[in-house]
Amino acid sequence: MGNFIFEQIINGVITGSMYALVAAGMTMIFGVLRAINFAHGEYYMAGTFAAWYVIEKLAVPYLVAIILGVAIAALIAAIIGRLVMQRLVGSPFQAGVLATIGISLILQNAVILAFGGGYKVFEGGWIEPVEFFGIGMAQQRIVLIVAAVAIFAALEWMVRKTRMGKAIRAVSQNIECCQVNGIDVESVVRRTFLLGTALAALSGILTAPVNVSVYGGMGESITLKTFAVIVMGGMGNVRGTLVAGMLLGVVESLVSGLIGLQYRDSVGFIALLLMLMLRPHGLFSQKARF
Amino acid sequence: MAITLDTPHAPSPRLPAVRWGAAGTALVALALAPLVLDSYYLHALIIAMIFLLPAHGLNLILGYTGMLSLAQGVFFGLGAYASALLSMHFGTPFVVNLFAAAGIAALIALPLGIPALRLRTTSFVMCTLGFVVIAQMVAKNWTDLTRGDMGLSGIARPKLAIPGLGDATIAITQIPHYFYLILAVALLATLAFVALIRSPAGRCMVAIRDNETLAESLGIPTWSYKLIVFMLSAAFAGLGGSLYAHYETVVSPLVFQMYYSNTILIIVLGGGVGRVPGAIIGSFLFVAVTEALRVTPELRMIIYGFVLLVLVFMFPQGIAPLLERATEWLSRLGGKTDANAEKQA
Known about the structure:
The complex is a heterodimer of chains A (290) and B (345).
Chain A: H1 2-33, H2 40-58, H3 62-83, H4 93-115, E1 120-121, E2 129-132, E3 135-138, H5 139-161, H6 163-173, H7 175-180, H8 185-211, E4 213-214, H9 218-233, H10 238-258, H11 266-278
Antiparallel strand pairs in A: 1-4, 2-3
Chain B: H1 15-36, H2 39-63, H3 72-89, H4 94-116, H5 121-141, H6 143-146, E1 152-153, E2 159-161, E3 169-171, H7 175-198, H8 200-210, H9 212-217, H10 222-248, E4 250-251, H11 258-271, H12 276-292, H13 297-313, H14 320-344
Antiparallel strand pairs in B: 1-4, 2-3
Helix pairs in contact in B: 1-14, 2-3, 2-7, 2-10, 2-11, 2-12, 3-4, 3-10, 3-11, 4-10, 8-10, 11-12, 11-13
C-alpha cells in the first residue's frame, strides 16, 4: 500500500509538471494582459496535433517532431498575437474573455474539421521503462519532469535577469508607466504570448507519448485545469504555478488511485471553486498584486 | 467590451409605433410560417425559439446586471433533465414539467449563486465555467439517476388539456403543433421578460450594472438583486431546457457541452446585449439560419468564433443598435414628410 501511494505521488508529480508548464505560460500572459486566455489549452492541443501530424506524414523522429510541433504552434500564436492579443491591451476584461473564447472555438473546431473528431494514437517518444527508486517508469516521464524543472529555472532566470524579463515584469506592474517610459507594450505582450503558448505546445508534445491519445477536444479540459493551477499559484505568480501544478497533479493522482478514476477530473474544479471562494489571491500571496 | 447603453438622443415620437409595428409584423410572419415552410425549416425556427429562452436569461444577467455567466448551459441542461425525469418517473403533464424545470433550475442556482456571486469579473467567469464541467461530470457519473452516457430517451410528448372540455387533451406530435406550442411559450416568456425589465426592479438592475457601489448607497439591496437575477436567469434557461427535452424526447450528458453555453453567448452578444430585440434577432440569425443551412456543428462553432472576434473589436454592441438606428431613421422619415405636408397646408 505504501509503495502504491508512493507510485501515485510520483505519477502525480509528473502530471503536475505538465500542468505547471502550461499554467506558467497562462499566468505570464495574465500578468501582462490582465486577461485570462480561455484558448490556452488549444495551443497545447495544436502543438500536440502538429507533432502527431509530422510523425504520421513525414515519419520524422520524435526529437524533430518536438521542434516542428512547437514551431507550428508558435507560428499560429504569432499570427493570433498580432491580430488579436495585442489589441487587448487596456481593454475591459470582457473583451479578453470573449476574444479568447472565440479563438478557442476556431482552433478547436478547425482541427476537428481537418483531422476528424476521433482519437488518434501518438506514436513516438521514449517509452522504454527504466527502474527508478524501485518503480518502473517510462523514460518519457523522467524527460518530462527534468524538462519542467529546467524550463522553470530558465524562466526564473529570464524574468529576473534579461531585458525581456524585466520588460515583462514592468508591464505586469504598470502598463501606463511602461508606455510613458518608451517600452513597447504591444511587443512585450506579443512576445510573452508567444512564449506562453510555446510552453503549452511543448508541454503537450512531451506529454503525448504518456497519454498516447490525441484528439481535437483535448485542449478544453487542459484550459480548465490550468485555471485551477493559476488561481492556486496566485495569478501572475510564475513560481507559485510550479508548486500549484505539482499539488494538483498529486491530489488528482491520489484521488484516481484511491477513490476512482472518474473523479480525477473533478479535483481541479473543486480546487478552483474552493480557491476562488476562500483564497482568491492564491495559496502563497498575502494579497492580490493585480 | 462596454455593455453600457447609449441613451437615445431625442427619439422621434413615432419611434415606439415603428418598433411595435416591426415586432407585430415579425410575430404575424412567424405565426403564418407553418403554412408556407416545410418541416425542416420549422424545425430550425423551433430550435431558435428554444434557445431564445436561455438567451433571455443571459441577457438578464449580463445585459441588465453586468455579470458574464457561462453557466446558462448548465441550467438549460438541468431543465432538460428535470423535465425528462419527472415525465419518465411520475408521468407528470407537460405544463407541470415546464414550470418544475424552471423552478428546479432556479433552486439549484441558489446554492451555486451564493458563492459565485461573491466573485467579480474574470473570477466569476471561470467559476461559472467550472459549473459547466461539474454538471458534465455529474450527468455522466450519477448513473442511477441519469443513466450516464446512455442518456434518457422516450420522454413523453406534450399533451395539453383544453380548458372547459374536461378530460380532452391535444397530443403534440407534429412539427407544426410543436411550433405553435413553443412559439406561445417563447412569446409569453418574452413578454414576462419585458415586464420585468420595465418594472422598478429592472431599473435597479441597470443601476447595479452601471455602478454597484452607488446603487448600494442608494439603498438598493444589491446582493439580493444579484442573487435573484441569477436565479431568474436560471429559470429562463430551465424553461428552454424543458421545451428541448420534450421536443427532442432524448436527453444525454451532451446537453452540458460548452456548445450550448457558447451558442447562448453568441445569441446575446451578437444580437445586442441589454436589448430585448437583441436576443430575439440573435437567436434567429445565429441558430435558425445556421440550422436551416445545415451547417455542421464544427463549422458553426468556427463561424461563432469569428463572430465573437468581430463583435469584440468592431461591434461591441451587437446588431440590435444598427436595427434601432434603422427604425429611428424610418420614424424620422415619416416625421419629415408629415412636417412637409403641414408646411404646404
